[in-house]
Design a protein that fits this description.
single chain; Actin, Chain A, domain 4; 5 helices; 16% strand; elongated
Length: 140
């Protein structure tokens, strides 16, 4: 016999044996369990990766307050504060102070004058934050 024919026959027998083995394991219930998929963790803030690092404490409350302050600052100033490293760091520091202050108080004022600037001039930011707002933000 030619060597090619022998090789093809051997390959055919190997495939038949593999399929038969899989079928027998399937029929007897010996199929392996699929690997467990890792659980997806929802993102806390939607900031670029280069900007999420400065939150040193890792506290969830601080992270959600930073996200909330960034959205409030954008609404008030019309400038995307998350892109400005200095303004972002000031927001993070203000969030940490506010969370610490709200441990003993019910309301705190966050005031950041000259937070950023654009062609029309400097932009100031001021808002009120309550303990209830933090609890609601941290819930999600």
């Amino acid at each position: 016999m030619d060597i090619a024919v022998i090789f093809i026959l051997a390959l055919f027998v190997a495939v038949i044996a593999f399929v038969a083995g899989r079928y027998i394991r399937y029929r007897t219930g010996e199929t392996p369990e699929p690997p467990e998929q890792p659980k997806k963790v929802p993102a806390v803030n939607k900031l670029p990766a280069r900007l999420s690092a400065p939150i040193a404490s890792g506290d969830r409350e601080v992270q959600v307050v930073v996200g909330w302050l960034l959205s409030q600052a954008f609404e008030q100033t019309g400038v995307k504060v998350a892109d400005d490293k200095v303004a972002y760091q000031r927001i993070v520091e203000a969030a940490e102070k506010a969370v610490k202050a709200l441990k003993t108080e019910t309301t705190t004022t966050i005031s950041l004058p000259f937070l950023t600037a654009d062609a029309s001039g400097p932009k100031h930011f001021e808002t009120q934050l309550t303990r209830e707002v933090i609890q609601e933000l941290a819930r999600y």
